[in-house]
Amino acid sequence: MSRTTQGGGDASQLNGCVPTGTVSRPRRTETSDLSEADAIRLAQQGDTAAFERIYRLHNRRVYALCLRMVGNTAEAEDLTQEAFLQLFRKIHTFRGDSAFSTWLHRLSVNVVLMKLRKKTLPETSLEETTEPDEETGGPRKDVGGPDLLLTGSLDRVNLQRAIAQLPPGYRAAFVLHDIQGYEHNEIAEIMGCSIGNSKSQLHKARMRLRELLQETLRDQARQERQAAKS
Rounded to 5, what percent of the chain is helix, strand, coil? Predict the structure, then answer.
């Protein structure tokens, strides 16, 4: 199956998909005026043209999410396609208990996390404790607010490399909150954890990113000194 292109490829590649991954040509029904709710209802009934409408409404943001989490365009394209294949198989299970975009992004995050956890990255549970601090006995700091030390003019390449080194749970929380702009209650729903856990994951992701970026700056300074000596 061919990949999507920058999250906005030919949606017909994903229409008519069956669990085996085969693709057939969708019937040409005019869907551009369909509301999202109508498209979901028709797609749940097996209307592939309605599914195309859903794809066109959401593929760019799903691709952006995948790209931020894996940092590789080819992998992001594959994961976007896999997310929509999963959506095609599971859309009949959507009951409207949450916003469709939240439900879709939860599915997409799970697809990406499964991919990441097959690699040799350290595992980190989403269930981080939010009990009182063991050292001080007092309440833990309410984390999850803006971190001014991670804003401003950061080298995007170094930042992306640092994000790629985060454990999957940290990476998901950071990407969803600081890049995608989700609130903690939304992240908790997407990731299947509590709001406190979402804040804890984000706080630890930011702390680790700061460490990684500082290490990068030290390495660059060391290389510059060595170059100057030679």
Answer: 60, 0, 40
Q: Locate all alpha helices (DSSP H) within 91-183, ordered by sequence.
A: 100-117, 156-164, 168-174
| Domain-wise residue ranges, the chain | 11-117, 148-229
Confirm whether pTM is higher than 0.70: no
Interatomic CA distance for residues 165 and 80, integer angstroms: 21
**Which tokens is 89 given?**
């198989």
20, with CB counted inside 10 A (0-12, 13-18, 19+), is: exposed
> What is the residue-level pLDDT of the chain in tens, covering all 230 positions?
444 444 444 444 454 443 444 444 444 445 677 899 999 999 999 999 999 999 999 999 999 999 988 888 999 999 999 999 999 999 999 998 889 999 999 999 999 988 887 764 444 333 333 333 333 333 344 444 444 444 444 567 778 888 888 998 999 999 999 888 889 999 998 888 999 999 999 999 999 999 988 888 888 788 888 888 87
What DSSP assignment string belongs to 153-164? Answer: S--HHHHHHHHH
Q: CATH number for the 11-117 domain, one of 1.10.1740.10, 1.10.3210.10, 3.30.2130.30, 3.60.21.10?
A: 1.10.1740.10
* CATH of region 148-229: 1.10.10.10
Q: How large is the greatest C-alpha to C-alpha distance in the chain, in angstroms? A: 70
The C-alpha atoms of residue 196 and residue 46 are separated, in whole angstroms, by: 39
